[in-house]
């Protein structure tokens, strides 16, 4: 079993929105074989609480605008150190760079295949 096409689409839109806010190390992990409640973990980080908040806002805005998807659950927003956005088949983790290094989700889920998110890093985010 692999991540659904819809989950991949949602992850790519979220990844591009994060990249447009200069998120660091944006990666998607196909966790559909490891857990049954979601297909994809999208992990990215920001250098400050303010940047984490900006990334979270951009992801939510773009998924609502482009795919009419709202978060089912949001956690960690008050501190803006590690914000989790649950979209059902996709869970977005936006972490402060220090917390990302400490918790190392990529290492924890190292058996999960890394997805090609097809992010355009040279894209003009204002277009």
Automatic annotation (TrEMBL):
The gene is rsfS. Functions as a ribosomal silencing factor. Interacts with ribosomal protein uL14 (rplN), blocking formation of intersubunit bridge B8. Prevents association of the 30S and 50S ribosomal subunits and the formation of functional ribosomes, thus repressing translation. Coiled coil: none annotated. Signal peptide: none annotated. It comes from Brachybacterium rhamnosum. SUPFAM superfamilies: Nucleotidyltransferase. This is Ribosomal silencing factor RsfS. The keyword Transcription regulation does not apply. It holds the Pfam family RsfS. Its main location: cytoplasm. Keywords: Cytoplasm, Repressor, Translation regulation. Interacts with ribosomal protein uL14 (rplN). It comes from the Bacteria. The keyword Cytoplasm applies. Belongs to the Iojap/RsfS family. It is found in: Cytoplasm.
């Amino acid at each position: 079993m692999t991540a659904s096409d819809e989950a991949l689409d949602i992850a790519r839109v979220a990844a591009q929105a994060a990249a447009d806010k200069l998120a660091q190390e944006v990666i998607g992990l196909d966790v559909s074989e490891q857990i049954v409640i979601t297909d994809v973990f999208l992990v990215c980080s920001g250098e400050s609480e303010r940047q984490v908040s900006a990334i979270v806002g951009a992801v939510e805005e773009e998924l609502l605008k482009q795919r009419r998807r709202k978060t089912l659950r949001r956690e960690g927003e008050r501190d803006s150190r590690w914000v989790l956005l649950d979209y059902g088949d996709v869970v977005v983790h936006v972490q402060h760079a220090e917390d990302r290094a400490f918790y190392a989700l990529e290492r924890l889920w190292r058996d999960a295949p890394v997805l090609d998110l097809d992010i355009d890093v040279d894209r003009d985010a204002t277009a």
